[in-house]
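User: quick one - fold this with S-adenosylmethionine bound?
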Amino acid sequence: MAKISYRESHKYEGKGDEYEAYYQSKTWQRFLWSREQEIILRILEKYFTGRDVHLLDFACGTGRITELLENRVKTSTGVDVSGSMLAIAREKLRRTEIIETDITAENILKPRKFNLITAFRFFLNAEPELRFAAIGALAELLDEDGYLVFNNHQNSGSPWIKLRNAHYRKKQPDGVLNVMSIEQMKNLAEGAGLEIIEVYLAGFFHPPKVPVSFCLNRAIDWAAGKFNYLNRFSENLIAVCRRKKNIKMELLPLSTP
Ligand SMILES: C[S@@+](CC[C@H](N)C(=O)[O-])C[C@H]1O[C@@H](n2cnc3c(N)ncnc32)[C@H](O)[C@@H]1O
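Assistant: Sure. Structure tokens for the protein plus S-adenosylmethionine:
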């Protein structure tokens, strides 16, 4: 039987409400969301202070990321293929142009340009064909001096994800838990002419069945975030990408003796 594309996964009635409830009820998700907000705002300050921001939130879903940003940017656009998810986004968002479309099939946003593109909780779960189509379409919409920010919430380098994967395979030998490594994130970006310039960790310590308080998790993230090389062990990663700079080889005149 042909596998259904991730494009279809959030389209059923009620999915938007389900997704909202998931974020509000799960302790780990609430912790991750608090860290993601901090990091996104830090990125905004670091790369966009003094600049007008034109935001595209790709696969915006119920508008989680868009809502955080819409009052901090000059223009805000959200796209998604799911009417069910967008129905919730429409209730929340006030300053965002919301478009139900699949830019991987037809990039109707061309020739517009955006200098901040966000794509959260999308690439990990999208099948390879959709991943590459999406990042290609986004690269076409990214301004010359713009940044694409995306996350990977099941980093295969994390010991907790390794454990969960092993457990999952034991229970479902034919099943596949979606995981993605930092190298795969880099390859994804590079395939679209982009380069990852920074990676932030959010959600470093997540041992299964061990309750860890919100405050302790924050302290661990804060300490682990001081050492770049620890990124590869974090469960959730946030990458900042920009266009790969072309190094122009200048032809120097031949020197005469
Ligand atoms: C897990 S949700 C993430 C929503 C939001 N970005 C967030 O972080 O809360 C993934 C979203 O990707 C959307 N999606 C799947 N394929 C898509 C495509 N080709 N174009 C736009 N959105 C797509 C789904 O409809 C769903 O709303």
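One thing worth noting: Helices lie at 15-25, 27-48, 64-69, 83-92, 128-141, 159-171, 182-191, 214-224.
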